[in-house]
Design a protein that fits this description.
two-stranded antiparallel sheet; six-stranded mixed beta sheet; 10 strands; Tyrosyl-Transfer RNA Synthetase; single chain; Rossmann fold; 3 domains; 26 helices; alpha/beta
C-alpha cells in the first residue's frame, strides 16, 4: 500500500483547491479510509424529482430559494460589513463564482462546453431560466449537492471532534434494533449509525422560523403556521440557526422532492393492462407510506426473454418508492401438475435466483432494494398450513378449478395439487406482508379469488396490478425473430411490435432518465445506451435504424407514433425485426457473459435442466488381472491315481511358459527377461 503522503497526493492531484487538507491528512495518518461524504449527499440529490422546465412542486428549486440563496445573501452582506453574522465555520464564501458581476446572489456553475456559468441577482431570474429550459436539471442538482456539502462539512467535523456530542446522540437516538454490546466499540462518526445518523440530533430544539419561505411545502415541513407561510422574514438572522437547519432539509429532502401521491400512482400503474383495488393503493400513498408488493415466479421451465416485461415494470415500482419482494415459488412449482420434479426444484430455484439477479443487474435495477424470498421458507410452517386447511374447508371445487384455469396446467384428470395452487398464491399475500401483488392478466382469476377468500380468513383485501400479455411472445422466443409473425400494417396480435412496447421502449426510457440523473437505475452491465441513435432529437425514446437507401432512421417519442407508422406501412416488418433482434442481442449479451464466467451457475444449470436425450455414460470395463492358481490347483495339477500315486502332468509348452512370465511381470513390475528354451 502507498504511504499516507502518497495517498494524499493521489487524492488531491489535479485539484484546483483543497480546503481542510489537514483533516484528510490526519485521517490517512490514522490508517482510516476517508468517507465520501459528498457522495452520500449527491445520491440523495440525484434521486430527487426535478423535471426539466417544471417549477411547480420542484424540491430542488425550492431548496435553492429557501436555503442557498438566503445564506449566500447573508454571506455577501457580511463581506460588506452589513451583517450581524459572526465568522462562522468552514468555507464561508457566498454561493457565487469569482467572476460573478455585482449584484449576483447565486451562480449556476457549469462547464464551458455546456454554456459556462450563469449568474442570478434573484431567485425569480433562476426560476424563469429553469422554466424556459435554459438550466438543465442535472446542472442544478450538481450545484445544489455541492452547496449542501459545503454547508454540512463544518458541522460534520465539529461532531466528530466532540465526544460528548456523540455520547448524547447515542442516548438521544438509540438504535431500536441494536443488540446490547458486549464491549465498548469505537464510534466511527456521524455516518456510522444506520437507524439515526449522528447529524440528525443537530436538529433538536432548533427554531426553523428563520428562513424566507414562499413555498407552502417547505413551510409546512419546517412546522410554520399557515399565517407564516406568506410572510417574508428578516434577511439578517443568526447564521448558526440557519446552518443547523440544513441537515433537516436533507433528511426531509427525499420526501420533499418526491412526486405527489397522484404522480406516484401514475408511475406505478403506467403501461398496465388492469388494476384491481386501485383505491387501496391510493390510500396508502396518500398516507405517505411506501407500498409493499411482490412478484412471484415458479421455477418450472427455463426463464425466457418474456420475463423482461415484468422485470422492467418492477423498475417503475422502485422509482415510486415501492418495497418489492421477489418470490421464488418452489412449492408452487412442484404442485403445478409435476411441471418440475421434486428433486429438480431446489436446483431450478437457485438457477432462477442467479438469472433474475443478473438480469436486474444488467438493467441497472438496484438489487439491494429487492428482497428474494424462497416459498418453502414459510409455506411449510404450521401457521401457513393451518390457513391452507381453513381455505380447503371454505373453497368449493368449482371456485378452485376456475381460479387456476389459465395458470395451472389443464389435463383430463387433474390432480388435487392443481386445486390447491390458487389458495396458496392467495395466502402468499398475507405471509409476505404486502399491499399488492403484481402479475400478468392471466393471473386475474387467482387475484379475484384472493380478494374474495382472504377476508373470509380475517385478512385484509389487497390490490392487484396486471401486465398485458405480449401476443405471440412465445413464438418470438421459440423461433428466430425473423420467423415471428409480423404482417405488414397489422398492429393486432403482433408479437414483435408488442415487444417493443413492453420491453425495449420502457428500458430505453429508464436509461434516458438515468443519463439525466432522474432514475433509480445503477450502472448496469454491458451496453447501457438507450435504444436511440446518436442523431436522435431530444424527446426520442426509440429509433428505427435503417439504411439511407431505405429512408434513413426514424425517431419516435412514444410507442403510439411507431404504431401509427407501422399501421400506415411507413415501417417495414423486416426493418422492425432487425431492430428488435439487435435490441434483444444487446439485452442478453451481458447475461450470457455472466453465465459463461460463473462455473457454479453452469453447474446448477446442468443439474436443474438435465438433457433428457443424453445417453448414460458406459461404465469402463474393469481390466482383467491374471491370478496364478494356488499350489495343487489348476488344469495342469498332478492328480492322484487310484493307488495314491500322483500322475505326471505334461510339461508346459514354451508358449505357456512365456505367457505366465508376462502375466507375472504385469503384476509385479518390470522383471528381467526370461529366456525360454526352444
Amino acid at each position: 500500500m502507498t504511504t499516507p503522503e502518497e495517498k494524499y497526493e493521489l487524492i488531491t492531484q489535479r485539484l484546483a483547491e483543497v480546503l481542510g487538507g489537514d483533516i484528510l491528512k490526519a485521517i490517512l495518518a490514522e490508517g482510516r479510509s476517508p468517507k465520501a461524504y459528498w457522495e452520500l449527499i449527491r445520491k440523495k440529490v440525484k434521486a430527487a424529482f426535478c423535471e426539466e422546465g417544471n417549477v411547480e412542486d420542484n424540491g430542488v428549486l425550492a431548496f435553492v430559494n429557501a436555503v442557498l440563496i438566503p445564506i449566500s445573501q447573508l454571506r455577501i452582506d457580511r463581506q460588506k460589513g452589513d451583517s450581524v453574522l459572526e465568522a462562522g465555520l468552514g468555507d464561508q464564501r457566498p454561493f457565487i463564482s469569482d467572476d460573478a458581476p455585482d449584484g449576483t446572489v447565486f451562480t449556476m456553475e457549469r462547464d464551458e462546453k455546456h454554456g459556462g456559468n450563469l449568474h442570478y441577482a434573484s431567485f425569480d431570474e433562476l426560476e424563469v431560466d429553469f422554466k424556459e429550459k435554459k438550466v438543465h436539471p442535472k446542472d442544478l442538482k450538481t450545484v445544489v449537492a455541492n452547496g449542501i456539502a459545503r454547508l454540512l462539512e463544518p458541522i460534520r467535523k465539529a461532531f466528530e471532534e466532540n465526544e460528548e456530542w456523540q455520547k448524547i446522540e447515542k442516548l438521544a437516538y438509540p438504535d431500536p434494533n441494536a443488540k446490547p454490546e458486549k464491549k465498548k466499540k469505537k464510534h466511527d462518526g456521524p455516518l456510522a449509525s444506520t437507524s439515526c445518523s449522528g447529524v440528525n440530533c443537530w436538529m433538536v430544539r432548533i427554531n426553523f422560523n428563520v428562513m424566507n419561505v414562499n413555498w407552502p411545502k417547505m413551510a409546512a415541513l419546517f412546522g410554520l403556521r399557515a399565517a407564516d407561510k406568506q410572510r417574508r422574514l428578516p434577511t439578517r438572522v443568526r447564521f448558526a440557526e440557519i446552518i443547523l437547519g440544513c441537515w433537516r432539509c436533507i433528511n426531509i429532502f427525499l420526501l420533499l422532492t418526491m412526486t405527489t401521491p397522484e404522480e406516484k400512482y401514475e408511475l406505478i400503474t403506467q403501461r398496465l393492462a388492469e388494476v384491481l383495488g386501485g383505491d387501496i393503493l391510493k390510500a396508502i400513498l396518500a398516507e405517505g407510506r411506501s407500498p409493499k408488493a411482490y412478484w412471484g415466479s415458479a421455477p418450472t421451465g427455463r426463464p425466457h426473454i418474456g420475463y423482461l416485461v415484468a422485470l422492467t415494470k418492477i423498475a417503475d415500482f422502485l422509482r415510486a418508492g415501492v418495497e418489492v419482494k421477489i418470490l421464488l415459488a418452489d412449492v408452487h412449482a412442484f404442485l403445478d401438475n409435476l411441471k418440475a420434479p421434486l428433486e429438480l426444484v431446489a436446483y431450478r430455484t437457485k438457477y432462477y435466483e442467479f438469472l433474475l439477479t443478473t438480469v436486474f443487474t444488467s438493467l441497472g435495477i438496484p438489487i439491494s432494494r429487492l428482497q428474494f424470498v424462497q416459498g418453502s421458507t414459510y409455506q411449510l410452517t404450521r401457521e401457513y398450513n393451518m390457513d391452507n386447511y381453513k381455505l380447503c374447508a371454505t373453497v368449493t371445487e368449482h371456485d378452485a378449478k376456475k381460479a387456476g384455469a389459465e395458470v395451472v396446467k389443464q389435463v383430463e384428470s387433474p390432480l388435487l395439487s392443481g386445486l390447491l395452487y390458487p389458495g396458496l398464491q392467495a395466502l402468499d399475500e398475507q405471509y409476505l406482508d404486502v399491499d399488492f401483488q403484481f402479475g400478468g392478466v392471466d393471473q386475474r382469476k387467482i387475484f379475484t379469488f384472493a380478494e374474495l377468500y382472504l377476508p373470509r380468513l380475517g385478512y385484509k383485501k389487497r390490490a392487484h396490478l396486471m401486465n398485458a400479455m405480449v401476443p405471440g411472445l412465445a413464438e418470438l422466443i421459440r423461433k428466430k425473430v425473423k420467423a415471428a409473425f409480423c404482417e405488414e400494417g397489422n398492429v393486432e396480435d403482433n408479437g414483435v411490435l408488442a415487444f417493443v412496447n413492453a420491453v425495449l421502449i420502457p428500458i430505453s426510457q429508464l436509461r434516458i432518465d438515468r443519463q439525466k440523473g432522474d432514475s433509480v437505475l445503477e450502472a448496469g452491465l454491458g451496453d447501457q445506451r438507450p435504444f436511440i441513435s446518436d442523431d436522435a432529437p431530444d424527446g426520442t425514446v426509440f429509433t428505427m435504424e435503417r439504411d439511407e437507401k431505405h429512408g434513413g432512421n426514424l425517431h419516435y417519442a412514444s410507442f403510439d407514433e411507431l404504431e401509427v407508422d407501422f399501421k400506415e406501412k411507413k415501417v417495414h416488418p423486416k426493418d422492425l425485426k432487425t431492430v428488435v433482434a439487435n435490441g434483444i442481442a444487446r439485452l442478453l449479451e451481458p447475461i450470457r457473459k455472466a453465465f459463461e464466467e460463473n462455473e457454479e451457475w453452469q453447474k446448477i444449470e446442468r443439474l436443474a435442466y438435465p438433457d433428457p436425450n443424453a445417453k448414460p455414460e458406459k461404465k469402463k470395463k474393469k481390466e482383467k488381472v491374471y491370478h496364478p492358481p494356488p499350489p495343487g490347483k489348476g488344469k495342469n495339477t498332478q492328480k492322484p491315481t487310484e493307488n495314491g500315486d500322483a500322475t505326471t502332468a505334461p510339461a508346459p509348452t514354451p508358449t505357456e511358459v512365456q505367457h505366465a512370465v508376462e502375466e507375472a511381470a504385469k503384476q509385479s513390475g518390470p522383471e528381467p527377461v526370461v529366456s525360454v528354451p526352444s
